[in-house]
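SEQUENCE, STRUCTURE TOKENS:
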Amino acid sequence: MLLAGAVCTVRSSKGEEVLLGSSFTFSCIFNKQCTKLIFRNGTQIKYIKKNISKEVSVNIENITEFNTLSCRCEGNPEPCGIDIKPGYPPDIPQNLTCVQNMNSHNVSCIWTTGRSTIIDTTCQLRVHGDLHLGYRSIMNSTGFCHSTFPIKSSVMSQLVVWLNVSNTLGIKTSEITSGEITHLIMLSPQNNDKSRLNISSLHPDTMYNFQIRRKINHTVGLWSDWSQPKRKKTKEEAPDKALDVWYLQELKPPESKSKCFRIFWKELNISDAKGKIQRYNISVLEQKGKSNSIIAVPPSRNQSICCYNCSVSVSAVNSEGQSPVKIIQLRLPGLHTGLLSHKPLNNHSIALFWPKFDIAGTEYVVHWYPVGNIEGIQWIRVVDTTAHITGLQPQECYQGAVTALRSSGPKMATIKGISSWQSAPEQGPDPELHWKKTESSGVAWSEIPQKKRRGCLKKYTVYLMDNLKGDIHNFSVDHPKRQYVISGLSPRQCYNLWVTAWTDAGEGPRGSVLPFCAPLDSEKMLSLVILAGGAVLLACLILLCICQFSSVHRRFLCCCQCLLPIIPDPANSKCAKTYADDQVNVWKCPRRLQEFWGQLHELPRLSEIKFYLDQWDSSVNEEPDNVEVEEVPYPSICTYIKSFSQESSSSDATQFTRITDIMEDYISTHGAISGGEEEDEYEKGERSLDEFEFFPSTHSPFLEPLVLTGGKLTLDVVKIDCSEFLDCT
């Protein structure tokens, strides 16, 4: 095939349409001498410099897609080229189907040509007896051909046709096909005629789609296409099936004397509900005749009830009525000691086995639910000792029971740790220390979330690592326990603790690590504290007993007075000596000296002071005996007044108490301050006397009063005597 252009002429050895996967030669013949370039889909594939020959060629192999081949001279942008289309030749026509519309005289036929040819393919239908050479059409991309032709004569009853398909790669013709025209007639799927058809056995409150198709009769013609669907919903009806009801015992509230149960019921399926369930009616009838009504609204499918020796009825209600009532007596089941066993059947079901509870033919109720989710309870009723439990989720742990429904009362056997497939836990528990002692500690740990368990937990392992030695000890704890007491700890030793969980598939990862240290021996410390406290208490008791003796009493008083600070004697101050006989100018002295001076002038002269001790008997007017007090010039810092004689009774202490209160402020505990000292020195001593007020008074309830009973006492000559503290009697 040659295609001429202004610069050159191109040629393909197999034309523009070639067999898919074939090879051919592409040539270019140039009109003038030039440097020749050949391109394939815009990419240069050959370069030839100027030479005598005007023709260049290139071999194209295994072509599988549309290609554009072109040539041009170097320096001249105008090309010449050809488009190559690969494809297949047609197959023999087959699967001819012809249809005549009842309202038309045209017949439409459709047939296939096998696989798609990819390249353009012409279809032709020829009718025997028709002068028309053929009815042409183009095959579509899916390999179908379609032609429509008229029926020339109304008396024509036989139709004879043959088919022809062709393209540049080949041509195929089918065998002659004949048939009755009446068998080719197809009615339209819809018309204006109305007809009625009663359809039975439909479910109430159910949406249905309706479609129709037609043909002339059962033996003549072809079925029409399906009409467009129409939706229609049936009416509701009252439910005609009773609910399936089961119950489990619940923990009763502390204030309730009745037994508590949780009632469960299964939701009716669409065909049994016959409409939308609006509520569930629950009636509780006790033995005494007392009844109680409860209404539950979907999606709720359970209800808690507390009663004693009662029965419960449950029914479902829709807009058209109520289902039959299901009555069940609430009785506590007895426990059966038989063992239940199970084995997985696949990832979603298991087989459960148990020994006979009672005579053959007993009905059993098998219930199960995910651990921690009693709302997901399911149950089945069987009369055999085997049950297939389906609908289980992999890596989920279930528990359940088998209950035998006997006339004498139900009997139940429980089972835990049901799983169709499981793996090691995904997460470990987090431990925490509840208490710790010197050699032991109590540890507890958190629950692992259900989704992280990946099956049924069997046990926990507690790991304890000694931080000093690096030793690791482990302790096994069966599930569901979540606490453990670790013993054998060393005081003041630090440890790291963690916990892992196990399923039948293996051990999971550890949780958080808990560091802690064992405390000191608190019992030994407590005993030492008790012993020390007891010793101090005993010493105090002994000291109190000893202080009851008067001699010890006086010596203890002198010892305490030895600890007192030096208090200056106001009588020895410069101001006191200056105004000894001048009461008018005594205001020039410090405040404390003025007070002392006022008290002094109420007494006899200081150098001749005597203590008069009145008798308790106020009726006696006689002057009491005098007690002579004499100064003892000891150089000690303590003041000790020695009694040389005691002529008056010890009961005459009333007057003494008043006088000692007056003298208490100015008796010196050390020698006199020289009269040449300045007034401010006395004031400093006076301040030190004020600061001394925090010392306890000598008038202690544990000490006897010190009574001066004789001699002469002057403030200028009072000295301190401690020499006989240890030998006083």
Summary: The longest strand covers residues 158-167. The longest helix spans residues 522-546.
